[in-house]
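Try it yourself: sequence plus D-mannose, in.
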Amino acid sequence: MTRGMKMTFRWYGDNDPVTLDKIAQIPGIRGIVSAVYDVPVGEVWPVERVESLKARANGRGLTFEVVESVPVHEHIKLGAPDADALTAVFAENLRHLAAVGVKVVCYNFMPVFDWLRSELAQQLPDGSTALAYDEAAVLAMDPSFSELSLPGWDESYTREEMRGLLAAYSRVDSERLWENLGRFLHAVIPVCDEVGISMAIHPDDPPWSLFGLPRIITGAKGYGRLFALEPSDRNGITLCAGSLGADPANDLVGIINQWPRKIHFVHARNILITGERQFREAAHPTDCGSLDMFGIMRALAVNGFDGYVRPDHGRMIWGETGKPGYGLYDRALGAAYLTGLWEGIVKSL
Ligand code: DNO
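Structure, out:
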């Protein structure tokens, strides 16, 4: 087996049309990335549920060492009176996950929304479809209500609750959000050091503020500040190429070279920038988009990266339907491409 880097694949559990059997047949995949999806944010995940995920993965010869995501309750991001109590629940979850063998927890600190796109199935000339982002179209939407639905979004809010949440953020600017992130990490990172689990914050996607909501994990400047909050390497990142790469000012290879020990998890996906604050998602190979996937994988290999990688959003190809970005075929092609790229790179170093 080629050294370093563990290739993984995201699995949404029993409701995922992409079954574990199919994932196990993709060459080079070592493990799954998953989560307990039906426990409300702010509650502890029952250990049996986590153990069952692990047992199912192991039964297919796959590991389960990466959780994506343990969601951070909005009250923690807002710094509400119950933020510390909710952070203690998050820490309790980390202890349980570590006990079951989880090594990395991906999370994000984006207010209200997770990733955002304006189109879920943009038709491409070759007949495939891809997710796309056009800032003007996004800003024309009503943030308290959208017909779009993306995997990973918390859809438990009513329209009224959503309005209330958006209004609550009018008191939280980016400085306040940084304070609240600092307070959260200050409580959580010592637990990570104790139990041997790494936190990997996902960058904001896209990496800039929207709807007046602050977004702070957007590139190198934010990373410098993030790492200064808690110096332990357990306070690390998920390097999501497609998220960071949507801002052409982000130098991904530079970020990898500057902070190799902070990267625990990589979402190796490509996008094609089509205009100012406009992009569409692309197949993984360098030639298909705007990002230098070879350069990114090479920088990781040169720095001795031995963490987890997963292919990220794929197009819908060969007539497949499913969760936007999370079909089988294009992600499987992506995984095979990335595995081949990696083998070529490490064997020639
Ligand atoms: C989208 C994903 C995100 C990611 C979260 C991590 O496809 O990359 O939803 O899982 O932001 O917390």
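One thing you can check immediately is this: Residues 68-69, 106-108, 114-115, 152, 202, 267, 313, 325 surround D-mannose (CB under 6 Å).
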